[in-house]
Sequence to fold (863 residues):
Amino acid sequence: MTTTEITYVGSPIDRVDGLEKVTGRARYASEHNPRDLTYAAPVQATIARGEVKGMDAGAALKVPGMIAVIWHGNAPRLAPSDAAELSVLQSPRVAYRGQYVAVAIAETLEAAREAAALLRVEYSEEAHDVELRADHPRLYRPDHVNPRLPADDVRGDPDAALASAPVVVDATYTTPAEHNNPMEPHATVAEWDGGGLTVHDSTQGPTALRGQLAPLFGMPPEQVRIISPHVGGGFGSKGLAHPHVVLAALAAKQVGRPVKLTVTRREMFAVTGYRTPTIQRVRLGAEEDGRLIAISHEACEQSSTIAEFAEQTTVATRMMYAAPHRRTTHRLVRLDVPTPSWMRAPGEAPGMFALESAMDELAVACGVDPVELRVRNEPATDPDTGLPFSSRNLVACLREGARRFGWDARDPRPGVRRRGGLLYGTGVASSTYPAYRSPSQASARAEPDGTFTVRIAAADLGTGARTVLTQIAADTLRAPAERVRVEIGDSALPQASIAGGSMGTASWGTAVVRACEALVRELERTGGVVPPGGAEASAATAEEVRGQEKYARHAFGAQFAEVAVDADTGETRVTRLLGVFAAGRIVNPKTARSQFVGGMTMGLSMALFEESVMDARFGDYLNNDLAQYHIAANADVRDIEAFWVEEDDPHLNPMGTKGIGEIGIVGTAAAVANAVHHATGIRVRDLPIRLDRLVR
Amino acid sequence: MTVDLQLSVNEQIYPLTVDTRETLLDTLRERLDLAGSKKGCDHGQCGSCTVLVDGRRVKSCLTLTVTVDDQPITTVEGLAGEDGLHPLQRAFIEHDAFQCGYCTPGQLCSAAGMLAEAARGWPSAVTPDVAADPVLGEEEIRERMSGNLCRCGAYPGIVAAIEEVAR
Fold:
């Protein structure tokens, strides 16, 4: 075995799959063309609630190259499932506009699309209800919120404390529905053979998807294989199985040939999940010096009629700041809308917009600097669990960010910095995200030629997982990274948790370290000689993860924004955005910076542009393409920087890491909105910060 | 309806029978196994499908294959030369100008086309003097590359990579 001085963890090495990605050789889900391939074009419901009464496929079936039309009336039966979204074509009921009600299969994509357009679906339509309101009569308290947290939490007597507090902020904030919109649309190539089902899919979790898909077809998980080496972004939308995967597998079974189904950008707005809109009331009660006495944060959200997804909007409020009295609640209403799901920092992203906007309003009300206000309310232990924090460096992030940003010279008065036709302002907000870890398995193999192969069913959506796992494995094996090959993105590999909840590196890295350690021990036993057939070791981390010490584990950050608002038109530009984060050890400064900046960019986008508009009359999201659903383009992102503070936390995992995929989006929108208030004197409590919300 | 034609892609000639409704993007991806060009929206809104047709950047999802049988096409697969990667490809790796990589082929082809436009003196919306030769600073690059969306938010790396090559 080669011993090397280099330590890879902490080094800014280039992405190990960079060459494949810049040459076009990296293959994504839809880029597999098995023999006898057919193409699927799904048909979406044109009503928001009701039933499919009939299907006239006469014209569709006459299209040259047409193979089959599948709908509820002739679809193969799936095993009954709790996941109603996955029981595709099993019922005539329509739960939301855009739900898949049929699929056309043809020899070419063009023929399939023509046939799908010619299908005549007959419906019996019922009145629909698609509007989220804070006074909706069917609002209820869910049993728990995502991932499995209490819906409500009350400490002390917040109402009495608010009634007697010297300073009170009481405001309602709203965030719109937002769609993940990864650049690669969801896609599936499904193929059946004697042994079972093989699926090329764009997924954040091959193991989890296999577990969801197999039972629907009455098979053990081993008979389903999910292959997903490259994923063109997901941001949560590829974390859970969506209907298209089932539809492709079901269609392939019906026609007896492989089927390729690529979800269109427009379809994605109905069938691949989105961030629920929220209505949030925040009340803060404080002493005159800004010290919090009471925090109340109550959220209303929506889900569909067929699935309950309850986002944890107010959960971060339970651990952010010290206050003796606190209430956090969630109320949900089931509407005739598509099913919401995970979108980058579900809960924290919309919730911290409200809390951190309210903290800015409190700073103004008390005449206390917004950085100082947050420092003053720093808790000694986790206010939610009472546990010590494994590490908490929010104050260090705020101080370091203030220094780098030049915050100290800030004049707090709003609306007084006018240069030309532009009003300038600056704002700050805190960020946080939990540091989770899930059980995973990995294997490590020494090959006789001196190389190593590490295997784990992880996923790289652009996060750099393949690269950082290579670094982690190389260090543990004490081998040059060039000799370490990490295989991921295949459910045939040792099972792994999903790329979600910012827990990939912590979960998979632990398994990789343990497998590599076991291999090193194995090789020590053989005196460093690799036998002709190679040597292999594996590890499973369920016990280690279950047995970890009791600590509150969270990453923190501080974001500073400068905006320029056109005084006549209200056009807002973020001229500077600076984030400082405390997220444990940073494995790869190059890919980590991209993660932080990418999250902050999505936060900027959330602040200024993103909004899925519900059409109340027809019951669907109206602006369902990238010309109408605006995401930040290159020219929207000017001066953006991410930094981190050193954080040595021994209570996390063998690498000492906290996740960094989501924290960058948390707090950004509040920092921008707070800067807009500083620039204009106008408090925008409803995202996005559109022109009409600033022109008076 | 189908048409027989010859397509010239990356200096290779492909004899093909294509559906007249077929887009250049679908021909590349589904017929020629040149899957480097990406389908992000199929509506000309995201730029992931950008290729070079006779040296100019075009959105292949809005281009019918039958309209380009007489013009040389370059895709991301054809950017690298015999002496290795295109300078833009090297710079994109060096500056971490991508994460998921799905918009990357379009960004690269778009950047190559954009550099040629600037070299020919074409101004952009932010060029201060439209009569002078444009200088490709950050603002010019951001403006000229805004037809290529990146949801991962790799814009600063993309701008830095292109700026390095433009120098």
About this structure: Chain A touches chain B through 60 residues (CB under 8 Å). The first strand of chain A starts at residue 38 and ends at 44. Chain A has 15 helices and 28 strands.
